[in-house]
Design brief:
Chain lengths: 559, 111, 169
């Protein structure tokens, strides 16, 4: 994991002191709310429905036990004892008070954390593959690159007042698990024919009101040129992005309006005119950062673990967890565990401070003191010996974090929605809870297989509903919450946006509609090996349209 | 025009308190967390509330002030028309232990 | 309007006019810049008001003749001026860069680091944000991850220099 040096530490500490003064100037009136708002947003502080909300950065989702315990302490001391993991690998606290926020930021700085630029019209948290450093299909760990970009983008004097927010994601594997195709800039680490490692650069992806899949504007960029190239993109966007209409201000609109080729030409022109820092400085810096991400001291273990196999044979509940929540680790004898933060009937992504402390203890003891928050609001224990999985599971059970539903139908992504968010047009969490309760049966979930439901409480799409295999968008229809269902979205390779099934339905109808969609899938799938998303692609969304309506003459199912 | 005069829309003024972000309502002289104390304005009275809204921006002790349409219930108690504002008056519907609802407030408001 | 730089308030040696005229130093609108440059007295400083939707490259052939460029900041959140300033410095403009309009003390360090020399604000804003706040804002953040035309050295470069020094030792 990256560790701050004196330079990083100084900047983060100074930022806390700066914000402390900004709060004081707001309270004494020398800053108006209009002046203060962009400043507090750039320190992660929103005003929501019921209270302020503080979004704390977890850079590329990676944190250790010390940091997780500090988040737990913050939740207890200055909030209501819980936090919420987001779809950008951050954590949100929903009840901080303005005068306490500088102290919270100081407590974060104590453990090398911050809330810098987690909101506002600036470059946000850089996200990365949550299986970085352990997946067999990895070309290179994306996190050093993500850390380099994090530092470069921090308090950037030229790019702190952009037309709109800016989100960057990095993937280093053959399979994209970071949804790079739906980010403002998506970066894929690739190898060219000569075996050199470089970057493929996508721009203009994004969800929200006008979803777009990103376009590749550079197939291969040498590593040392990354920051210079990003600066070129940012300058083109800063100067050319729309400022007249908040809903048309993202880079995706600029790329769409002038065309990919024209946009790429502007970037190349800007890039070739650069006289920025020599590439050797950036390359040296990347190498320095990469040293912090050296693999942990794995033991040499056999691929098959006798204790693990025995535990599965003994305990069907454990066997079920092992079947759903483990990810193949490239090192024999190890695995990556997905800790689901989607307990049935509870708000997706929420953890109590006790649960945070439990996770910290487990990670410290069993996972080389490392955890990752995923962009689907779960937690990864990245390096667990198969020998230890049963003990980890027992500890997770005790903490209420052992739901065996990773990637299954009850592993639902939901934004906070109108229960918390000022922008929302409908609630999302109760919909997620109702669906999860309806599909709670573990055997049924296993039968259905992988199925990603994503729920957004408004068209800003923070729940990423556009890229849900089933997407649900909550709107306000004449003063009543109304939910539009989409099918066929996919965030990864071959990224696609979901297609609307038909008119929206009321909240009460949503679980029934999902059931009928699932029943249709089970009836037409080529076999249990054909995942839901593949069936949708094969038979088409139209085949599922009847699911919107209750069957008129079908016999009623026994309750 | 329909026979019988339609009651002009009733509004109250609401905002979030600067320091703790909590939901507050204007009672005619100041800000209160209690919905039932909110001053209801109709017709000509609305402009006075609008003036208070504008003043609140200059004063800065509340943030994001807005006028909310309300309708009195059968017992004359103030109920915000829109479901967002009813959630705002109660607290998160998925955490009944948080917000004004946890303090037993605004019980007459239901979603 | 009041004018300040990193040392404090300063009096404005330039006045604004549509043409070069008799003023000792004058800032003209972009549309009349060519005329003003043609009509200027020998040694008369000419400045130009640049709207923030301008392309800095348009000034490249004239910039050597321009003494001051005032870049508009119509709204606090509109950060185009930072890129315009940086681009002008990148393309070799060595005159005075002035940020003019809606800019707050908390942006002052960014402005200087992008190549601005001075900031021009409305009187009412100057009353609410006395010079002490502006100068104090510059003292708050030590270190930057970017090089700047103001002489800022990025943390990356400093680390690299330190590492090279260690190697050489």
């Amino acid at each position: 994991m990256y560790r701050y040096d004196e330079f990083d530490e100084r900047i983060v500490r100074d930022r806390v002191a700066q914000f402390r003064e900004q709060v004081a100037r707001r309270v004494d009136g020398s800053l108006t709310e209009e002046e203060f708002t962009p400043l507090r947003l750039m320190n992660g502080l929103y005003l929501q429905l019921h209270a302020y909300m503080l979004r704390v950065a977890i850079p590329y989702g990676t944190l250790d036990s010390r940091q997780m315990r500090q988040l737990a302490m913050i939740a207890d001391r200055w909030d209501q004892g819980y936090g919420h993991f987001t779809t950008r690998q951050n954590i949100q606290f929903n009840w901080p008070k303005l005068p306490d926020v500088p102290d919270i930021l100081a407590a974060l700085a104590d453990v090398e954390m911050h809330a810098i630029q987690t909101s506002g019209n600036c470059i946000r948290n850089v996200t990365a593959d949550h299986f970085a450093g352990l997946a067999a299909d990895e070309i290179e760990d994306p996190r050093p690159t993500a850390e380099l970009i994090r530092q470069w983008s921090t308090l950037h004097p030229e790019f702190s007042f952009l037309p709109r927010k800016f989100k960057i994601a990095v993937t280093g594997a053959a399979r994209d698990r970071a949804a790079v195709a739906v980010h403002d800039i998506g970066i894929r680490i690739v190898a060219n024919e000569a075996g050199e490692i470089g970057y493929s650069i996508l721009v203009g992806g994004g969800l929200g009101r006008s979803p777009f899949i990103g376009k590749t504007i550079r197939d291969f960029l040498p590593k040392a040129e990354l920051l210079a190239y990003l600066e070129a993109i940012m300058r083109v966007y800063n100067l050319g992005g729309r400022r007249d209409n908040k809903y048309k201000a993202r880079i995706k609109i600029l790329v769409h309006e002038i065309g990919t080729e024209a946009f790429a030409a502007r970037v190349e022109k800007e890039f070739s005119a650069r006289n920025g820092p020599p590439a050797e400085v950036d390359a040296a810096e990347l190498a320095r950062i990469a040293a912090y991400f050296a693999p942990p001291a794995y033991q040499a273990l056999p691929a098959v673990s006798a204790p693990f196999e025995a535990a599965k044979a003994r305990d069907p509940a454990f066997a079920r967890f092992a079947a759903t929540n483990l990810f193949a680790h490239k090192v024999p004898g190890y695995t990556a565990i997905t800790v689901s933060v989607k307990p049935i009937g509870k708000p997706p992504g929420d953890v109590t401070s006790d649960q945070m402390r439990a996770l910290a203890d487990i990670a410290e003891h069993f996972s080389f003191d490392e955890m990752r928050i995923t962009h689907v609001q779960n937690v990864i224990l990245p390096h667990v010996r198969l020998d230890d999985v049963a003990d980890v599971w027992a500890a997770l059970v005790e903490a209420g974090l052992a739901t065996p539903n990773a990637g299954l139908i009850t592993d639902i992504i939901a934004c906070p929605g109108m229960d918390y968010c000022k922008l929302a047009t409908a609630r999302s969490i109760p919909i997620a809870q109702d669906i999860a309760v309806r599909f709670a049966d573990a055997e049924r979930q296993a039968l259905i297989g992988p199925l990603g439901i994503k729920i957004s409480g408004c068209i800003n799409a923070c729940g990423h509903h556009h890229v849900g295999a089933i997407g649900i968008l909550g709107l306000d229809k004449a003063g009543v919450e109304n939910y539009q269902i989409t099918l066929g979205g996919d965030p990864g390779d071959g990224a696609s946006l979901g297609e609307r099934l038909g008119p929206g339905v009321g909240a009460d109808a949503v679980p029934d509609v999902i059931e009928r969609i699932v029943d249709t899938y089970l009836a037409v799938r080529a076999g249990p090996g054909e995942a839901f998303i593949d069936t949708v692609r094969r038979v088409g969304v139209d085949s599922f349209k009847p699911a919107l309506q209750p069957a008129e003459e079908a016999p009623r199912e026994a309750a | 025009m329909a026979i019988g005069k339609r009651q002009p829309e009733a509004v109250i003024l609401s905002a979030n308190a600067l320091l703790d972000g909590a939901v507050v309502y204007h009672d005619g002289s100041g800000w209160t967390p209690h919905l039932e104390a909110a001053r209801v304005a109709r017709g000509d009275e609305v402009s006075a509330l609008e003036a208070l809204l504008a003043a609140s921006e200059a004063q800065g002790d509340v943030v994001d002030a807005l006028l909310l349409p309300v309708t009195p219930d059968a017992r004359g108690r103030i109920v915000p028309n829109h479901y967002r504002e009813r959630i705002r008056a109660l607290g998160p519907t998925v955490r009944r232990d948080l917000g004004p609802q946890a303090r037993g407030e605004h019980r007459h408001v239901s979603l | 309007m009041k004018l300040l730089d990193r040392t404090g308030w300063k009096s404005d040696g330039f006045s604004r006019a549509e043409s070069a005229g008799d003023a000792s130093a004058v800032i003209v609108p972009l549309a009349t810049l060519d005329v003003a440059l043609a009509e200027r007295r020998a040694g008369q400083p000419i400045g130009v008001d640049l709207p923030n939707d301008s392309d800095p490259a348009d000034l490249r052939t004239r910039q050597a003749k321009v003494d001051l460029i005032a870049i508009a900041f119509p709204k606090y959140g509109d950060g185009r001026g930072f890129s315009i300033a940086k681009a002008l410095r990148d393309q070799g403009f060595s005159g005075i860069l002035r940020a003019s309009g809606s800019i707050i003390p908390d942006q002052f360090a960014f402005a200087l680091q992008c190549g601005f020399d001075e900031v021009e604000i409305e009187d009412a804003q100057a009353e609410r944000q006395p010079i002490g706040q502006w100068l104090h804002a510059l003292t708050l953040i030590h270190g930057t991850y970017q090089d700047g035309p103001d002489g800022s050295v990025s943390v990356f470069r400093r680390r690299h220099q330190e590492a090279e020094a260690v190697k050489a030792a």
